[in-house]
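note to self — DONT lose this again. spent like an hour looking for the file last time. sequence + predicted structure for the chain T wanted, 175 res
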Amino acid sequence: MGSASFSVRLARQEDVPKLPVIERSAAQLFRQIPALAFLAEDGASLSEAQHTACIVQGLCWVGVESAGKPCGFLSAEQQGSDLHILEVSVEIRAQGAGLGRALIQHACAEAKARGMARVTLTTFRSAPWNRPFYERLGFCVVSSAKNETRLTENVRQEEISGLPPGSRCAMVKMV
């Protein structure tokens, strides 16, 4: 799938049932990491109600193929003066074509247009397609020593929910 074969648009309510399916497809990549392989079997991390809340706020975008079928999404919410990315997923068959990058860039542009100073997220520290991907897009790992209470708490809650201790990190990008 080449980068010219998709476009990014605001998600619509009729897209909501497709988003968990996309997320489960994207999670199949975690089968490559034994400690995280369970993610390929888990349900989606965001509920349809959470996606709907993001859509209502105008903070959920889908990447669609030329035929109009969603093959990736980014759901976010405003947290204070930050845009916080809750989930970015691209169907496994569409990965590597630039759709994830396009979704992140779109979200960053929207955050800037809304007067937000930063875009934040949490991700896997050691998965080669997570932290390094975001670093290439200008995100930096945040240490808990930088007075980032909200982000540190997000990581802590993810670990309480069952993710391996120390596997996650918070990242931030100034926009």
